[in-house]
Specification:
379 residues, 12 helices, 39% helix, 8-stranded mixed beta sheet, alpha/beta, 4-stranded antiparallel beta sheet, binds pyridoxal-5'-phosphate
Length: 379
């Protein structure tokens, strides 16, 4: 096998000697569960990283979202407004609280929730807005902050795909009332599985900590005033996370470089790559492109299959809009006409974005994409 047919995965974790050293240290210490020095160290480092006062580490991005809503008292009878184009966990977490998701279409330029439609989605039952920073591009936080303040709503960032991105000079994780992060294996920072909630509100942070750990009283062992969860992160995961944060600037700069190579290699292709609004300094979670031309789900699947089989290149489609998923089809949808989420989802492709890639790998993806697309159009 030549270097030229090396399989190019969509994403792979960027793990080095430091990760190995810290995780080994955690294992050797015997602190393998959710007590141990790396948890505190990771929470402190992550809070500092997000320029937030508090960081509460949890078991995943999904449990972060669930806990963030529960700790705010959101539940049955409440409505939570979120984008139609996102990973399903954003909406699932709302349903798990007993509240009702209200799905709002995205902006055609930023691909994030459209503030004008959010305004139209508000009812007397609205309690919260979840802003997802899709593929690393911040949502329009000034407009969302303004709407949330005027209507007394809780503004929650879902920053699972956007560690380190900035909006108007300020980092995500400190732009709403609270922010949720994921450290799943393919995210920008990983702990294997894991998540975190950041906030400046001391009382709210204390409530997150309480509910994360079965709501056990700190005065009396095994006394529980209310029903909590086990959403704790382990010391081993936190050890991995500490190493990742120390190497963050290097890892995120590599992703940016890869995106710039793609921009150059695909500049004549007609594809629109990751948005960059003037106010924003996005980060690149995945290189995501909206393809030119006419596509159907079947043709897009055919394209991905050929890239995989003939060129050994892994790709992924964009998320399926939440309103198109059977369990969510009955929820209220406030949308552009036609739906921008459906349009993007029908032609969106994520390309290999591993920090190990070199410029020749990127050129290989670009030329394979060009040749398969032109052949698909020729027949
Ligand atoms: C990955 C992701 C989540 C869920 O995180 P997990 O750690 O996989 O539970 C939630 N929201 C968004 C936008 C995500 O990309």
């Amino acid at each position: 096998m030549t270097a030229d047919d090396r399989f190019l995965p969509l994403a792979e974790p960027d793990l080095g000697d430091l990760e190995m050293q810290y995780v080994q240290d955690a294992v050797r210490s015997g602190w393998v569960s959710s007590l141990g020095p790396y948890i505190d160290r990771f929470e402190e480092a992550f809070a500092r990283f997000c320029e937030a006062r508090y960081a509460v580490a949890v078991s995943s991005g999904t449990t972060a979202l669930h806990l963030a809503l529960m700790a705010r008292g959101i539940g049955e009878g409440d409505e939570v407004i979120g984008p139609d184009l996102t990973f399903v966990a954003t909406a699932a977490a709302v349903v798990h609280t007993g509240a009702t998701p209200v799905l709002v279409d995205v902006d055609p330029v930023t691909w994030c929730i459209d503030p004008e439609l959010v305004e139209r989605a508000i009812t007397p039952r609205s309690r919260a807005i979840i802003a997802v920073h899709l593929y690393g591009h911040p949502a329009e936080m000034t407009a969302l902050r303004d709407i949330a303040s005027r209507h007394g709503l809780f503004l929650l960032e879902d920053a699972a795909q956007a560690h380190g991105a900035r909006y108007d000079g300020r980092i995500v994780g400190a732009l709403g009332d609270a922010s949720c992060f994921s450290f799943y294996g393919n995210k920008i920072v990983t702990t294997g599985e894991g998540g975190c909630i950041t906030t400046d509100d001391e009382g709210y942070a204390a409530r997150l900590r309480l509910l994360r750990d079965h709501a056990m009283s700190d005065q009396r062992y095994y006394f529980h005033q209310e029903i909590g969860f086990n959403y704790r992160m382990t010391n081993m995961q936190a050890a991995l996370g500490c190493a990742q944060l120390e190497r963050f600037s290097h890892m995120v700069a590599r992703r940016q470089e890869i995106l710039e190579w793609y921009r150059e290699a695909l500049q004549d292709s007609g594809a629109i790559l990751n948005p960059r609004d003037a106010l924003c300094d996005p980060v690149c979670w995945l290189v995501a492109g909206s393809l030119p031309g006419q596509w159907t789900t079947e043709r897009l699947q055919q394209l991905m299959q050929r890239l995989h089989e003939e060129h050994r290149i892994a790709t992924r489609p964009f998320f399926v809009p939440i309103h198109e998923l059977p369990p969510y089809a009955g929820y209220r949808l406030v949308t552009h006409s036609p739906s921008v989420a459906t349009y993007l989802s029908g032609r969106g492709l994520c390309l290999p974005t591993s920090t190990r890639m070199c410029q020749d790998d990127v050129r290989r993806v670009a030329s394979a994409l060009a040749s398969v697309v032109s052949e698909e159009y020729a027949n």
